[in-house]
Amino acid sequence: MDERLARMSLAAVVEPGHPAVAEAVAAYGAEAVWASVREQPADVPLAVRARRVVPEELVARTRAAGLRFVVPDDEEWPAALADLAGGEPVNELSGEPLGLWVGGGGHLGELCSSSVAIVGSRASTAYGDTVAADLGAELSEGGRSIVSGGAYGIDAAAHRGCLAGRTPTVAVLAGGLDQPYPAGHRPLFERIAERGAIVSELAPGEHPTRVRFLARNRLIAALAPGTVLVEAAARSGARNTVTWANALARVVMAVPGPVGSATSFTPHRLIREAEAVLVTGATDVLELLSPLGRASPRTPGEHRATDDLDGVELRVFEAVPGRGALPAGEVALRAGITLPRCLAALDRLAEEGFLAQDLHGQWHLPHRTPHRAR
């Protein structure tokens, strides 16, 4: 058994955020720890779970769900997760993940390297939803991906706002990605996966629990350089994410709300007690996350190839999924333009190397998006 398969097998039996296991893997390697777990006495619950795992079947389930398992040595692994190693536990949880199940066409490490986490109440108000969606859209247009938890309320509003912009979004879930929770957000997760990523520490088939949500929160806080809290009542799970962000020395921000609203309680308290910086829009967030606290224009090295596309070309390009291929007629429907205009744009995009056509005449993304000469 190699290191990757040992990490996958351990992740399938050990609850996320188990600091002792993470420390043992760092010290001795996953193969040795997996062998040790399986050799425990038969009455040890962890050993019972381990003996039920068939690693080859776990690999097959992962592939069948269209997922990949990413580990720390992989190029796609977000380097920021290393900050979880050796840190002070929160709610007795800590430790760098053993690995992550990832779905979607986005590169997880690249998306998270320039991201903002937006979290908040599931029972959000119209005000909170509007603020979260506007923040998501404006930050996305500014080149920042949005990391959130895919839940109802503020999470969903932030994801949808980001989807309206030009930079993909990342959803970190507390259960297996083959049956993402909440089930009512399946269409949202499918849209996120087209260009972004959905992520979990849990193997396919696993269901969310309260502890798993708390463990998930540490990933959201660790993945992004800054976390914004939009609406949270006195007892809110989003408060736990903020606690993690502060413990990891991330930039913590909070949006003020109406003084009479129960969902304003936690943001206002964090601002009052100097645990969070008050922000009222994307400009404030970008300023705080920029070097020396100053937002600056993007440098030439940050120029994106798609910046030079015209409106029709960009709509056609974004209508093509991150994985798979579509016929020209379906691309035209998604882009909301006529088929002749779509065909002309497809030809131009193919000439520039943005898109490619397969043997069946369907359109898909090439392996790499080109960097158009300026």
Note down, in words, how this protein is organized.
With 374 residues, the protein is α/β, with parallel strands linked by helices. 43% of the residues lie in helices and 11% in strands. The protein is built from 16 helices and 11 strands. It has helices spanning 3-13, 19-28, 30-38, 45-52, 55-64, 108-113, 126-141, 154-163, 186-195, 210-223, 237-247, 265-272, 282-289, 311-319, 328-335, 339-351, and strands at residues 68-70, 100-103, 115-120, 145-148, 169-172, 197-200, 226-230, 251-255, 277-278, 356-357, 363-364. The strands form 2 sheets. The protein has a 9-stranded mixed sheet, with helices on both faces. Strands 10-11 form a two-stranded antiparallel ribbon. Strand 10 and strand 11 form a beta hairpin. It is globular. Mean pLDDT is 89; it is low at 293-301 and 369-374.
* Count of alpha/pi helices: 16
What form results from the Cα inertia axes? globular
Distance between the amino and carboxyl termini? 49 Å
Widest sheet: strand order? 1-2-6-5-4-3-7-8-9
Q: Over the alpha carbons, how many angstroms does the gyration radius reach?
A: 21 Å
Question: What is the helix/strand order?
Answer: HHHHHEEHEHEHEHEHEHEHEHHHHEE
Q: What would CATH call the homologous superfamily of the domain at 303-364?
A: Winged helix-like DNA-binding domain superfamily/Winged helix DNA-binding domain
Number of strands: 11
